[in-house]
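Lab meeting, item 3. Inverse folding demo.
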């Protein structure tokens, strides 16, 4: 028997003895309050990514805006500023009414093309509007997908 064989034998005996020792004790149920204490302790610890969030593409659906051919998907609402990040989808031939900006608005055109009386904007163009400004009627012949950060309480202008 080599030295290594002796080590293996000693390890095997120790393992068998520990298994016998574990079986020698009766199972004990933890006190009922243990789960409550453990859950309270977990809840008190900050999440590893506190302050970060994610919205998966299939978690929320598109909602109607009340304007024919235009739907939106709310991505995020910043409660400290009141600004909401949304995806706005305009179907081909749809029109988005002019509106007054209560706060600054940012718009990135992700797909398609939109038109204002002052020009056309296509995918990749970034448009912003300062607080108090007014957007004219927006139209599209191709359809468009816009990423918008704005105040959801912006006021439509009567046509």
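The presenter then showed the designed sequence:
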């Amino acid at each position: 028997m080599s030295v290594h064989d002796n080590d293996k034998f000693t390890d095997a005996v120790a393992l068998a003895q520990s298994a016998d020792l574990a079986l020698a004790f009766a199972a004990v149920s933890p006190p009922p309050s243990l789960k409550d204490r453990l859950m309270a302790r977990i809840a008190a610890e900050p999440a590893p990514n506190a302050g970060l969030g994610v919205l998966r593409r299939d978690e929320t659906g598109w909602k109607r805006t009340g304007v024919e051919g235009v739907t939106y998907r709310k991505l995020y609402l910043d409660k400290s500023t009141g600004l909401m990040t949304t995806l706005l989808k305009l179907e081909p031939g749809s029109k988005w009414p002019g509106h007054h900006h209560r706060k600054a608005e940012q718009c990135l055109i992700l797909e398609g093309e939109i038109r204002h009386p002052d020009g056309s904007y296509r995918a990749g163009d970034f448009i912003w509007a300062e607080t108090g400004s007014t957007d004219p009627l927006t139209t599209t012949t191709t359809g468009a997908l816009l990423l918008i950060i704005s105040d959801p309480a912006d006021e439509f202008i009567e046509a």
